[in-house]
Amino acid sequence: MHPINDNGYTQAADAAVELLQRHAPEEAATAAPYVRKLFEALSDGHTFIWLNDADVAALRQIPGVVGSSGMPLILSGKRLFLGRVWQLERDLAQEIVRLAAAEAEPVNWMQAGQNLAQWFAGANSEGQRDAAALALLQPFILISGGPGTGKTTTVAKLLGLLCSNGGRLPRIALAAPTGKAAAHMARALHRAVYDFEPPDPIRRHLLQLEGQTVHHLLKLRPPQMQPAFHREQPLPLDVLVIDEASMLDLALMLQLLRAVPSGCRVILLGDENQLPSVGAGAVLAELAQETRLNTATAQELSAMLPQHGFTVADNPPPLSANTARLHFSHRFGADSGIGCLARAIVAGDAESAWAQFARFPDALGVREGSIKQQAEAFYEKQAAYWQAVVSGDAEQAFSRQTDTVVLAGWREDAAAFNEAYRRCLQRYGLARADAPWFAGQVVMVSRNDYALDLFNGDIGLILPDPDRPDTLTAHFPAANGRRTVPLSRLPAHETAFAITVHKSQGSEYGEVWLLPPSAPSGSTHGLNRAMLYTAVTRARERFVFWGGRTAFQTACATQENRRSALREIIAKETEKQAETSA
């Protein structure tokens, strides 16, 4: 069970059992152990538990609690779901199938073919070209790929193609799970717009796009967290791009897709090898699969792009024509230490992964030491950052803050490092034990504040106020530079010299240090393959693992696939739809 979620899920399980005992006391005795197992599985992101024959037989004796629909517990073959979670997966599958089956705007094949040839003429851009062409035909598509494969470049050119296709410029929104990821996507997309030559009106249209969080897009407001946009009041959009889609759990993805009108194009971007969402489900992993086109789609695509490289099949799996994976990394090639390490981790080849540290000593490093030694080493590494802070150069401080970052698997380990680093800074006179704030302190917002336009994951620096140098204030990046927020108005936040791997998603840094977990050897709270891969691929230039060979190779070999029925339910919904339309 996830160490952070343990207490919350245990309390939820206790409450569910108590409710059962009040309303169905006889059945509760049988159901209670399964309810607790389901909540334990949910805390690890799974949507169901497997049963044996005896379990199935026992649960069939309490039909007032267990059934195939509309019950607190849902039994499907040898799988048992909490009723609400089963409904979430079913409802999400229906929304995905609805959007994927919508009528796409007809493609001007001649114009699109010319633009595809011109805009994707660079070396090794065939995969990006094929993905963009397929996305023109599909109203719902997932474009996946590792770092440097050009997901944002592909989507920028795809948006250019869509803008060139119709008589009017489409209404486009860029969204991501966190403010940091949304801002990163918008910056990357603006840079990518200068890599090709769309007409000026289209270029201007794309350059005015800004990223926003999914919560902000839907106008989810506390305390009820009911969205302003939903099925009855859909988003006024023609195209929705969702970056870092692996971070979206079942519930938020459902809220989002329910608010999308049929005919609005949905473009998901992400990397299924990264960590899944904190909440239940693995939506991106369930959607990701090898691209296979039926004959009709292949013929339509060939009219625009005869040389496409997609496989054609007689009976392709459901939605296999709604996904395209980019394989060629323009950032991490065969001579890249980070790229070679990431690929070995994805393959689960622990021996090869470890060998990369010796093969690429400039890009990859291994260190060991106490938390005090880690803090001292990080202080030395941050010399340029602290020089900028002390000299009052806020712009340089922001630039240098991302040179090196410390990542940890669990929040407790990040908090322990942040405390050790504060003590280190006190020794050098940069922080005081009797003051909560100090210049140069890095903070991360942990709760959305719509009034201040600050969101979970946003990073700020505590620095002197430009107008009152003797007063500290929080500085945050803004579209036109930076903005300040009084310390008294800061929403819930935490010190963030070290952050969790989860919180780092959607960001990239010059150098990444990954700390070993504090949990004892053999604990289920150690690192795993997805966490290792996510940490490694946050680094642009260098990755350092703080730990030994055994811990690293164990993490590389530990694949924690989430149990989800979404793909199977999508197949059933697709089949149902085909029967209805036949």
Q: Distance N terminus to C terminus?
A: 46 Å
Average per-residue pLDDT, rounded, comes to 92
- Which structural category do the helix and sheet elements fall into? alpha/beta
Beta-strand share of residues: 15-25%
Task: Classify the helix fraction into a percent range.
Answer: 40-55%
Q: Counting H and I runs of at least 4 residues, what is the number of helices? A: 23
Roughly how many Å is the radius of gyration?
A: 25 Å
**Biggest sheet layout:** 6 strands, parallel
Walkthrough of the structure:
The protein has 582 residues and is α/β, with parallel strands linked by helices. 44% of the residues lie in helices and 16% in strands. A 6-stranded parallel beta sheet has the order 7-6-8-9-5-12. Strands 13-22-21-14-20 form a 5-stranded parallel beta sheet, sandwiched between helices. Strands 18-17-16-15-19 form a 5-stranded antiparallel beta sheet, with helices on one face. Helix 14 runs antiparallel to helix 15. The chain is globular.
Architecture blueprint of SSEs:
Layout: H1 6-23, H2 25-43, E1 49-50, H3 53-59, E2 66-67, E3 73-76, E4 79-82, H4 83-100, H5 109-119, H6 126-137, E5 140-145, H7 151-165, E6 172-176, H8 179-193, H9 200-207, E7 211-213, H10 214-218, E8 239-242, H11 250-258, E9 265-270, H12 283-287, E10 292-293, H13 295-304, E11 311-312, E12 323-326, H14 337-347, H15 350-359, E13 364-367, H16 371-381, H17 383-391, H18 394-401, E14 404-408, H19 411-427, E15 442-445, E16 459-464, E17 472-478, E18 481-485, E19 493-495, E20 498-500, H20 501-504, E21 509-514, H21 529-536, E22 539-546, H22 549-557, H23 566-581
Parallel strand pairs: 2-3, 5-9, 5-12, 6-7, 6-8, 8-9, 10-11, 13-22, 14-20, 14-21, 21-22
Antiparallel strand pairs: 1-4, 3-4, 15-16, 15-19, 16-17, 17-18
Helix pairs in contact: 1-2, 4-11, 4-23, 5-7, 6-7, 7-8, 14-15, 14-21, 15-22, 16-19, 17-18, 21-22
